[in-house]
Structures are given as structure tokens and as C-alpha cells.
């Protein structure tokens, strides 16, 4: 961080969020001149101003710590591991949410879409997937040795996933996500699948489902929702999300509710 100054970092976040200096200065309550001096390095911002600018730009907590360090201040937000005692209540809430969602699949994922918790139904769907594709959701879904070989609507699902991943890259500029995007786009069959996506002029479905072929030949159709913590003050919690899968039709609901579950 000794070679990084806070001004260019703040300017980068402002441009990424498509905010003008005037707009941001009015939101934060500083003069446009002072903000300009901060961005050009003529003025060293206080920790309070850095945090106010980070909040105004909706900067994730991990990057807010980076801004503070670049400005010569101590990080504000801790980054405890999920198994830390301090995160016990949040961890228990995640587990209760996932267990209550069973027999429908549910997972908790981190910033890079690595699965950190999963319920029984999610484990059943990923049984037999090579270990090197776990725990990342994008590798799991798009690699030909993963769920891609059983995905009946791969062009549509791959397009949804890559749009989602590309948006995350644009919003965060995270090098880990950037490398992951390049990796999964290089998987065999992904670019070919994207080339056969339905025309954007065709009728738009209500939701993009994940349609999987089961071992007995039946199709399992699922749609997903994402849930995040509302007021996180820890980097780990700020980066966690819960993805819950729901049956998209009655047949899929009946399959998931059978005692043995899908195979």
C-alpha cells in the first residue's frame, strides 16, 4: 500500500459508479474543490472523510479498508473468519436458514462465489462432481465435468451466470473475479453455448431457471433468490450471500420433496 495513494483509488470508484465530483461532494457535504484536491493528492483526507466517501460510493467494506490504508489511516472493519466466535450468531442464523429451506437446495457463498455452507439438498445435487470444481459456483455450473453436462438449458443459464459475473467484475474491479471470469469463459463449450442463446427479441421469461437432467431422465427446474445481511460491519459478513433454490414447477417440487431426493 506504500505505493498507492488514496486519490486515484477514490477517483476510480467515483468513475466506476458514474458519479460526478459535484454530485458526490453534495452527498458527502464537502466542497467540490476539496474533493478535487483529495483526488489529485493535494489534500490528505481524514479517516471520517474517507469513510463518508466510501459510503457515498457504496464501496464494499474490504475496499473501504484499502482506502483508509492508502490515506494513512488504520482499517475500520475487521475481517474475521466465519468460524470465529464473534460470528457465531450470524453463522447460526445462516445454518438455520439453510436447514429450514430443506428439502430445497440452499448454499451460503462468499465474495468469489465459493460455497461456505450448504444444506442436505444442495449436497445431493452436487454429489459426484470433481473435488477441484468445488466449492466455486461458477466452476461447478459451467465446467463440462460439473453440472454443465446435465444442464438442459445451458445457453440460457450460462448467459445468466456470465452476465452476473461480468457485472460483479465491473462493480468491484476484483482481480479474483476478473481471473475467474476469464477462466470460466475458456471452458470447452461455454462460448459455443453463448452463441446459441435465444434472441433478445424473443418473449422474456419471468425467471431464468436452472434445468437439470436427473439420473432417471426427469428434468428438475429451479429458480434462485439471493439474500444478504442488511447492516454488516464485518468484511466477511459484508461479502456473504445466501442463494436459495426453489422449484419452478409442480413436478420439480414433488421430486425435491421425495424422501430420497433427486439423484
From TrEMBL:
Q: Which CDD domains match?
A: HTH_XRE (cd00093)
Q: Where is the HTH cro/C1-type domain?
A: 10-64
- Mind telling me what this protein is named? Helix-turn-helix transcriptional regulator
Kindly give the PROSITE patterns that the UniProt entry links to this protein.
Answer: HTH_CROC1 (PS50943)
> InterPro entries, from UniProt?
Cro/C1-type_HTH, Lambda_DNA-bd_dom_sf, MLTR_LBD
Instruction: Give a Pfam family name.
Output: MLTR_LBD
Question: Top-down, what is the taxonomic lineage of the species of origin?
Answer: Bacteria, Bacillati, Actinomycetota, Actinomycetes, Pseudonocardiales
Source organism superkingdom = Bacteria
